[in-house]
User: Fold this.
Amino acid sequence: MGTNCDAITRLCTVDLNAPRIVAAFLRRPVVVRVQFSEAMRAGNGLEGVERLASYCIEPFDGDPSVCTASSEFVVLAVTPVDEMTVDLWLSSVPTAPRYTLVVSEVVDAAGNPLSVPSYADFDTGGDLEIVDMVSTGPSSFEVSFNRALWNDVDGPGSAACSTPAECAKRYRLVGPTDLGAIASASIRPFPNDHIVDLVHTLPQEGRVYTVVGANGRDGDGFDDVTWGAIGSADQTRALAPSPKDREWGFGEGTLASAFGDGPLGWNIFADQQNTPQISVTTEGFLFLGVGNHGRGALRLDTSSRTADGLTFRLPSDTNAIGTTTKNGSPSPFASIGFSTCTAGTPACGPDNERGYSLFGHSRLDGADLVFLSGTETKAYAYVSTDTDDVLDFDYVDLSLLFGSATRSVTSIVDLNEVAYLGAMDGGTGRPILIGLNARPLLLSSGLDPTPNGGSLCEPAVHEACLLGVEYIPTIGGAGTPRNNANPLSVDLFAHHGLLYFSNNGGIVRSTTATPADYAHVPSDWTLITPTAPELTGTTRAPLTEYDVHPRDKGWPFLVEHKGDLYAARNTLTGPQLWRCQPDLVSSPFPASPTACDAGDWTFVAGNSSGTLDQTQLNNPNNTAISLLQSSGGFLYLGFANATDGVSLYRSAAAPALRMSDFEGLGGCVGGTANCVGLGGNGLGNPTVNTEFYTAVTLNRPSGDELYVIAGGPGQQSSLYRQTD
Assistant:
């Protein structure tokens, strides 16, 4: 932590933002350029950015926690380029295709130590790429590339332009507000001739914007085949395919911090093909993905106003144990695929995945993991511990636990150092719930977990356990009574050290912290679906195997709020909100005073007239609950509404029991005439925002931040932020 003071006004601000490595790349054959996110402490002292011993370069091995310096060369010198950039001079030209730079002990100008990421992978070959975008004023962005740029103003292949017409051939700016035309783009003089100053005509706001550069390709959100591609200074390299042709940055101005402020981001990948999911990490980063035809994601930190584009490297599985991946294209793969990709080509995933079904985080075996799973695969999930801008994944081969009708992993939660995965399945063994007890330890080695098969699940013995939930009555296709919906999956939740899951058949929880499989130890599980008389109507079941949204699910949410658990239920006739008071029923076993049981539930916030057994806040157009989240002392309740646009309300009551406990726009009382939701109908855009897709709460010392993605069929989705 340090203090920055203005020499003229003498006003001082405390800098709490930790610096990070933005990029590392070969600037010249023997020069590695390192770009930091902030001004760094100068000099070659112990914490200075010019200290030679603070830098280690190793051939890529997937483990940046231990750096074994390359034997090919040594770092001879560190020279400053500017306050945020240094060049590392090598004794000889690197010959391996890929390296990792690891930096230690340096601090920024305010004394903050280096944070995530403190390392960066870089290639010795490859295309020209955009690596960073930072606002430099209300009408300008600094856009950094990984190589010096061809500078022939308005000429073919040049990154520089002097008129809106010429700049429109080279760049596209996308965001939730209009930035106007790009007036000019100028390349800085050597040694910063890899940086472009982009000037636009309308002012920025405190939101996330995307810049896309011309790469001579159409169909990626910026059609530029006619003009061509931005090129490197030596005219040997052209701008890379998506997503390395784009980057993200926060605009200047106060950050959007309430639903009424409008979206923080819109069409955030600039060629959105999927409905993105969001998740948070223990470091306080927000992850948004997947976009760019399955090729990337975005990492946001609103506290430091940083936005990093992330790319993927997914491995093939050639191990004879279990299965081997079906896509014969060379590994690694840059994409998890998209709906129209051609099987057997690099555009699809390693197992010919055609898009993603799950993008989230979990904790397993002492590590924070990014999880990625694709559609149209019967075998794989992918995990990564990476924190730089290239997520190197390992595979987890689940083929010995999946059936022939398994489609994809759709839900994840971690509990007691186990990652639980729910999978969509269309066979008699539907749905599938797996407890993953181990993770790959070496990059590219992957994991072919030892499963329990038909034996008792023992986490100390089995690296993955099939938990047999298909036999649970009303939940599974093999239960008695049987759940006849097809396909089936489960949504997973953790509460007070126990595992909960739900589908159209009801709600189940574990009775122990590490439950065994239902077939061998059924007492480790108990059905806790409400038994109150208001449980009426037919619970919704998804009619599709892919791209299932909360409005399609029977019990899409379980949320803890001020000591109680709230559950959302969607029926074919309308939604319901339920409250669990855990100590209402405390015995006999498996009832518990700290966990939910069937008799602990009461129906809440019903309509005041007409359909009294539905929770719609008296608006019959609120056809499904598609958001339920606790944040900042409020319980947020959001509805899918194709007529009026999404409607979102919140309650600070403990407990929240009545419609009047919820407030809408301007503090109006929920359920009363003309009380629209927070931010207005459809969050201000009712024809576009007709449902909520996903929401997460980021807990910060300064207060909670709620992030929500809203959109609708055929529409680009938007990211909203509410601080409490």
